[in-house]
């Protein structure tokens, strides 16, 4: 199965290894990271009556929500068996969430989300109830949301070609400033 996925990347998505492919990835990452920011803050508003949940980055983007859909879109070829599709919609976002949570905790001594009180959790970074939510969100993304986003990208691609590198630099600058901020906080907190 993994070899089949890698062959899918190599043969079906050759464009990801071009400038145009990189531009598309930056676009999809930006859009899905922003949608993730909206989704997470809306969830926070519904459950805690507070819209602005603490964010890792300065801007209105949640990178975890950018990485997972981009991986799903590029790793799952059209016509994939439903069983494999559902498994990947569970595995990829859950893996991204676990790796993100573990890295953030290791690097910055802080846990941005904590599922410790949730049943069937692992180190507070992932839990079965939210992994099941990721399956549904991923299926919705792949089947209905991404085709619309891809069509939108197709219509703005000539303009995006002029600004995508600036968007990529924005994300790098935001990441650098964020790392600096959290590193300084760790130093001042004595961590």
From TrEMBL:
TM annotation in the entry: 16-35, 56-76, 82-104, 125-146, 158-177
UniProt KW keywords: Membrane, Transmembrane, Transmembrane helix
Domain of life (superkingdom): Bacteria
Cited InterPro entries: CmpB_TMEM229
Pfam families in UniProt: ABC_trans_CmpB (PF06541)
Protein name in the entry: ABC transporter permease
